[in-house]
Specification:
Number of domains: 2
Number of helices: 8
Helix content: 40-55%
Radius of gyration: 20 Å
Structural class: alpha/beta
Length: 210
């Protein structure tokens, strides 16, 4: 009975979200602006955590600059939620039109050889440094070295509202021949540069540093 009730609850929730995803994107963005006002201005959802994380990660920024990043983070975060909802029902053709890949041809040689390629980006297991010491999981590097894979970093940049450019940046041709820890260090450097380039695009609302 419990499984049946859980299934009904999940199905009902999914049905509601799917129905909402069918709304035109301008309407969903309208909802996201209302969510921004509510989460940032009214409720202040984890605002102290966000301010602390950004201030510590970018000590060179003054208060006005930190506040600007904080506001853009909340606006971008709620807009991303709207885009995630839309992704439930969007057609593959329309989704492809929102993504532009650059540099995929740089992997053609590796793919032609029938070798594995591991792509890494934000949220794949590592916590950034960003002027603060942090622990790092090495699972991605261990997998790459064990399989002798090529490793590529996907540098994601917003190009327009709801559109993204993904730059393919290979940084290791054969992980099996790399020194221990080198892949993780290079990944951290690239991800840190990515965050610095678009600071408001990172998820600052979690307590990343203890």
């Amino acid at each position: 009975m419990r499984k049946i009730l859980t299934g009904l609850a999940y199905g009902s929730a999914y049905g509601v979200v799917y129905s909402v995803s069918l709304l035109p994107m301008p309407i969903l963005y309208g909802f996201s602006r209302a969510m921004y006002a509510l989460s940032y201005r009214v409720v202040g959802y984890r605002r102290a955590v966000v301010i602390q994380n950004i201030s510590r990660s970018f000590p060179e920024k003054n208060y006005a600059e930190v506040r600007a990043v904080v506001k853009r983070f909340y606006a971008g975060f709620t807009a991303s939620l709207a885009e995630m909802v839309k992704s439930i029902s969007i057609s593959p053709r329309r989704l492809d039109a929102k993504l532009t890949f650059i540099g995929l041809e740089r992997l053609s040689g590796v793919v032609a050889e029938g070798r594995n390629v591991i792509a890494c980006m934000g949220h794949c297991g590592n916590w950034e440094m960003l002027n603060q010491p942090a622990y790092h999981f090495s699972g991605m590097e261990k997998l790459a070295r064990a399989s002798g894979s090529a490793v590529v970093y996907l540098h994601i940049l917003p190009s327009a509202k709801g559109h993204y450019t993904i730059v393919c940046a290979p940084f290791c041709v054969d992980a099996g021949a790399s020194a221990e820890g080198e892949i993780t260090r290079q990944y951290i450097r690239r991800l840190t540069d990515n965050i610095k380039e678009v600071p408001h695009g990172w998820l600052w609302s979690h307590r990343r540093w203890k």
